[in-house]
Amino acid sequence: MTSEELRELTASEPLTLEEEYEMQRKWQEDEDKLTFILLSGMSFDAKEDDQKVTPGRLEGLPMIGDVNLFLKGVPDEEDFEVEVEIMVAEPAYRRRGVAHTALQLILSYATDPSSPKPLPVPKDRFVARIGERNEASIRLFEKLGFSVTKRVAVFEEVELRFTDASKVWKKGDVKLLDG
């Protein structure tokens, strides 16, 4: 990640390309991480009968970001938490509802009783840690039912936890890849 602005917004350290690849491999293999890659919009021909998502249809679509869950601790223990992160790397896709939709989908998936183990998780276990100057992200999480519960001056960040039990998140359709 070469963008200084993006590193500040995501509280990320500069990594070499090799370190980036190693981190991606680790995230793919670790059972305590769930990452979905955000691709730019996909359009299907409305006249097509076959609307299946295939690797061929995804190939070539630009990656614009990712959304992540990091499970920390043992699910049945009191200190268990699920850290939620979102990154929309491409500036052209920011402030267009992409992050809001992606977060709703991953949060609804993570709390759905039909999701595979180690999911589902209770809503009150979700936490987001955001740089205190990243006001847009703080507002985004507040719209999703999170509230600032702690300020950590030494890291210049705020901690938000899910607190709005009445909040309902958008659900997505499950689409299996063919091929």
Automatic annotation (TrEMBL):
| Listed PANTHER family | ALPHA_BETA-TUBULIN-N-ACETYLTRANSFERASE 9, N-ACETYLTRANSFERASE 9
Keyword Acyltransferase set for record: yes
Report the Pfam families cross-referenced here. Answer: Acetyltransf_3
Q: Identify the InterPro entries for this entry.
A: Acyl_CoA_acyltransferase, GNAT_dom, NAT9-like
Annotated transmembrane regions:
none
Question: Protein name, please?
Answer: GNAT domain-containing protein
- UniProtKB keywords: Acyltransferase, Transferase
Q: Which organism is it from?
A: Dichomitus squalens
The family classification in the record reads: Belongs to the acetyltransferase family. GNAT subfamily.
According to the entry, every stretch annotated as the N-acetyltransferase domain falls at 4-165
What Gene3D superfamilies does the record point to? 3.40.630.30
Acyltransferase: is it a keyword of this entry?
yes
GO MF annotations in UniProt: N-acetyltransferase activity
